[in-house]
């Protein structure tokens, strides 16, 4: 049996109790301006942004895509010689009271 997931209310209550405990233990919460926490020396940290290099030209691969699409189309085409066989299934025969009597094969 698995443990039930926490509700949003339970999660909020847990976070609130952690903050209260932090404050009671003489912790201090500093107020900062909106957006200030993402800044380093008054500027956004751009060292992790991957747009520093100029855009590279892409290699056209239209002929490769066309070849792949052609192979897919060949696989999808059904073979006219192949005959589709009907799979047999087991079916349960029940009596008047809903009890299973026997299994029969059905096509």
TrEMBL record:
InterPro entries: SutA_RBD. Residues 33-59 are annotated as: Disordered. Residues 6-40 form the Transcriptional regulator SutA RNAP-binding domain. It holds the Pfam family SutA-RBD. This is Transcriptional regulator SutA RNAP-binding domain-containing protein. It comes from Maribrevibacterium harenarium.
